[in-house]
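Researcher: We're teaching a course module on how sequence relates to structure. For the next exercise, students receive a sequence and then see the predicted structure as tokens, so they can try to spot secondary structure elements on their own. Here is the exercise chain.
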Amino acid sequence: MDLSLVDAIIAGERVGKYVLGITLEELLQIIDAPYKLTETIDIINIDCEDINFFIWKKTNRLTTITVFDNFKGKYLNEICIGSSLEELEGKVIEGLEFDSMENEYTLDGITFSFINEKGTKQLEYMVIWTGIEN
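Model: And here is the predicted structure for the students to work with:
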């Protein structure tokens, strides 16, 4: 794997070696940390320490990855957990939309959720996603 992709967060595509669209079996082969697997009617959820994976049962494909806490990966080589909203807005020129109902910012393939820390909005988690296919 290209070393620049090791921790890269690419909207709608991947988080490092975890590529959206891979099967559950492929994902389980490359997870190198303890995990907990749970299921709902439609989703298989795989929880790790600072990254979660969501498999759509109907297709058996990875559709969503959430990173949080101490995850070290970066979006656009700069935006990481703990980055400020101002840093994100300075890096992303257009297309960033605010969802007031969810209190999140979204671009195609990635969602950013912020918390208020000492008067500054800091990135709490990122959701990297692709549309669910039948």
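Model: If you want an answer key for the exercise: The mean pLDDT is 91. The domain at 3-129 is CATH 3.40.33.10 (Pathogenesis-related Protein p14a).
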